Amino acid sequence: MRIVHAADSFAPDVGGIERQVEALALAQRADGHDVSIITAVNKDDAQDDDLDVHRGLRTRWMTIAFPSFNHSMVAEVLDRGDVDVVHAHFTVASPIAIYVARAASRRGIPVAVTVHSVWWKVAVAHRFVSGVFFGPSLLRVVYSGVSTMIAEHIKRVYPHCGEVSVVPNLVDTDWWAPATPSLHRAGDPDFRVVLVGRLKKRKHIDEFIDILSRVKAKVPTGTSVAVSIVGAGPRHDDLQEQIEQLGLGSWVELLGHRTPEQIRDLLHESDLFVAPSRQEAFGIAALEARSAGVPVVGYNFTGLADFVESGVEGLLVDDADDMVDSLAKLLVDAERVERLKASTRSRRPSVTFDDAMRATYDFYERARRELGSRGEKQSR
Hints:
Elements: E1 2-7, H1 16-30, E2 34-39, E3 52-55, E4 60-61, E5 64-65, H2 71-78, E6 85-90, H3 95-106, E7 111-115, H4 119-134, E8 142-145, H5 148-157, E9 164-166, H6 173-176, E10 191-196, H7 205-218, E11 225-230, H8 236-245, E12 252-256, H9 260-268, E13 272-274, H10 284-291, E14 296-299, E15 314-317, H11 320-330, H12 334-346, H13 353-371, H14 374-379
């Protein structure tokens, strides 16, 4: 197939969607497909040796590109031979992806849209961008979400959009899996808790630090807990100040950036992984931790519910109060934590790399079946 991905964010920018689009394009190219990428990101340190990447002009407001300035580039990619499917990746601000989807739809090219963020935000932004920049137009696409939760959001907001597929993010679950038994046992001498994520407001790490303060007040004095927060970002200094003000210096350490190999090693000797975001569309870091055999504690109304069975592979809680109570109980019950670790390590993750690739190709076939191929459209 000839596949064109459209994503406003892409490498060298850092984030979940950037990693996913690049990983998917590389995997599809390895499968023998002709893959191109259209993105708004144009930076001096961009290296595209391994992929056919078409970058927008350097005319962005903050992270928002102006599609009209990139009309020629988009037309050149879409009109260069037969495109079998355009895979548009929507997040909260996606003017380039929306523009490419509309341009492809007008050409009769099947368009498959994957939503990577909480859908009501994407829907509001989509309608605003379409109305302000493009005007009214019939957008013929098929939709998918990166999790069941996102798919359900799409159905509620667009009740007449038809079937909504679930196309999970790509995580090499086998690479994260432990090869040897852990040398560490919960509470011996401490409980090891890990969080991995960008230090940004939307990750709700400040709320998790507040939760830890409440947990510390509920457990017996002297309970030994080591919380490692991995990641860099603009909120580092604010979070460090918060840790000190709450008296959590003996519990929490901001480790900064770590390589995937270093994160994997850390996970293999940890007891719990916490995913504190209440707006987690999927939870890449959480699936990596679960694949590494670490029980995950997160919220049951997020994308984590697709791959964490509560009580077996971690705990999915209702709200912040529930998370406080659940963590406080776990941190004084080493035997229960060890049971969770054993069951997590013994079960294959319910979402694997192969599952995600298969779901992606099935989604493309659905787009071609429901929307028709370019040749079929032009012959009518």
